[in-house]
Specification:
Elements: E1 2-3, E2 7-9, E3 13-17, E4 20-25, E5 28-31, E6 35-39, E7 53-58, E8 61-64, E9 69-71, E10 74-77, E11 81-83, E12 88-89, E13 94-96, E14 119-121, E15 126-127, E16 132-133, E17 138-139, E18 144-145, E19 150-151, E20 159-163, E21 166-171
Parallel strand pairs: 2-5, 3-6, 4-7, 5-8, 6-9, 7-10, 8-11, 10-13, 11-14, 12-15, 13-16, 14-17, 15-18, 16-19, 18-20
Antiparallel strand pairs: 1-2, 20-21
Length: 173
């Protein structure tokens, strides 16, 4: 599927339900072969009704490599979000490469866009359900992010991370 130079989805792919795609501005979304996206509560018994959302604002970019699995996942980019091949993301996870607005002063919260920094998620990563991955984070190849974790710092390859904020629990080679 091609939509100008803003949206590219390579075939084959499996999509259950409807993915909500928003490209607002000059940004783009590129998706490699064998995307598996669950965006329908009848397909997943453990998800809240959360369809997949791929939202690009301004000049943001979302790049999904081959064989990525999304399940009720929301990805929002103003900078760049990259997800490596063979990565699985469990239900209700949010990945966002910017702050929604500045913290201070309060009167500017309605007008500001906040800071942004790219997110890179490596190959063969597994992100458990109900996680949040925030701006500027790199998740190394083979890492596992435990259910309910809030990732605000880089995660080493082949390691298990858990908690709020997520901390390294152990190596998993």
């Amino acid at each position: 599927i091609l939509y100008g130079n803003k949206l590219e989805i390579k075939s084959p792919y499996n999509i259950w339900g409807r993915i909500r795609i928003l490209i607002h501005g000059k940004g783009s979304i590129k998706i490699g072969k064998n995307l598996n996206a669950v965006s329908d509560r009848r397909r997943s018994g453990i998800t809240l009704f959360t369809p997949c959302h791929l939202n690009v604002l301004n000049e943001g970019k979302i790049i999904l490599d081959e064989h990525v699995g999304l399940n009720g996942t929301t990805i929002v980019s103003r900078e760049k979000v990259e997800i490596g091949e063979n990565t699985m993301i469990a239900p209700n996870t949010i990945i966002m490469d910017f702050d929604g607005h500045d913290l201070w002063p309060p009167d500017l919260r309605w007008k500001s866009k906040g800071n942004k920094a790219p997110i890179k998620i490596g190959k063969n990563v597994w992100i458990g359900m109900n996680c949040v991955i925030l701006k500027g984070v790199t998740v190394g190849d083979g890492a596992v992010i435990a259910t309910g974790s809030i990732v605000i710092n880089d995660c080493e390859s082949n390691s298990l991370y858990a908690g709020n904020p997520a901390k390294k629990i152990k190596n998993i080679d």
